[in-house]
Amino acid sequence: MTTRILVLTAADDVTAERVAALLTGGGAQVLLFDPGTVPSGAQVELSAGGAAPVRRWLRTGGRDVDLDGLTCVWHRRPSAPVPPHTVTDADVRAHLAAEVRTYLDGVWRGLACRQVPATRDVIDRADRKSFHLAVAVELGFEVPPTLITADPDRLLDFHAEHDGQIITKPLHRSPRGTDAAPMGRFTEPVGNRDLGHAATLRLAPMIVQAYVRKRVEVRVTVVGSAVFAVEIHSQATEHTRYDWRRYDHANTPLRVHPLPGDVAQRCRDLVGRLGLSFGAVDLILTPEGRYVFLEINPNGQFDWLELATGLPITAAVARLLATGEVPA
Asked: What CATH number matches the domain at 145-210, 2.40.50.140, 3.40.50.410, 3.30.1490.20, 3.40.50.10420?
């Protein structure tokens, strides 16, 4: 029986293309498709009623795909729906985008095939920092002293409690493919100048944490039962001191990290507890040797780690998509 895999991702996803090449080489049929092209560039249709079974299919690029015949759907990095430019009213555009997103979510959720790392609703829940942070605590991870608040006075009290050594970071990542330009920010220290704008916190909650000193940061990629740990020497350059996502590749060494067995198992437990089959866990290794949990990304990038260290993460992801299992 032919393995048929649908990869939901944005155009020019090199990581997905590398995984797809491995799968195709193994005899699987793979289609990379961006849901953001629906309905202007592609159609996803559903029929139901009468004595016939429910049927779902995708029409894209002159190709018809029987969605009910899929082996697996990989929710990789799909774009959000974007209405046609001929629709100019902002409220109407928002309504149309929500309609398409709601419809597609229902179609993907109704498929009986395997979904990686999980169904969209499970992924969205796991991605909520206020949720997965609490789960990490329950599983025994050490986490930095943390406050999520929209109260400026609580921020000032927290700042004083930790002698001014605190950072802030956003609660979510901006969605791909929306009309508005992405609005993102890095993890940043809170200085006296920032405190002068504390009143703006009333506009939306923010994560505030005590600053944790770092020996290195550790990105742990969990694929099935397999665990791949890479240490990121973010303290080697001032540019990445607070957030390695500022990327200073030339001055930030990446090396395979010998993760202790109990920490590796806790990472597996977290991914499983969140209902995922894949997850990228961010940890700090302190100068004293403690592992401190920061967050988990249900669809974190991994090709850059593999290219730097040679860890076979792409092959593990391909096996997960094809078989649903990757042993430790």
From this structure: 3.30.1490.20
Q: Where are the domains of the chain?
A: 4-116, 145-210, 213-323
- DSSP result, 102-156: HHHHHHHHH--SEEES--HHHHHHHH-HHHHHHHHHHTT-B---EEEES-HHHHH
**Cα-based torsion angle of the residue sequence 11, 12, 18, 23 in order, rounded to the nearest 10 degrees:** 20
What value does the mean pLDDT of the chain take? 91
Q: Please identify, in words, the CATH class of the domain defined by 213-323.
A: alpha beta
Bridge partner list, 169: 207
Region 68-89 average pLDDT = 94
In contact, 97 and 81? CB cutoff 8 Å: yes
pLDDT the model gives residue 177: 47
Q: CA-CA distance, 280 to 228, in Å (whole number)?
A: 9
CA distance 218 to 14: 23
Helix 14-25 vs helix 313-323: crossing angle, to nearest 10: 60
The strand pairing partners of 207, in sequence order, are: 148, 169
pLDDT tens string 246-271: 667 777 889 999 999 999 999 999 99
Burial (CB count <10 Å: 0-12, 13-18, 19+), residue 327 = exposed
Q: Which fold has domain 4-116?
A: Rossmann fold (3.40.50)
* Alpha-carbon torsion angle 286, 218, 280, 274, nearest 10: -30
Q: Which two tokens stand for residue 222?
A: 């969990």
Quickly state the pLDDT bin for 184 (edges 50, 70, 90): low
For the chain, the first-to-last Cα distance in angstroms comes to 27
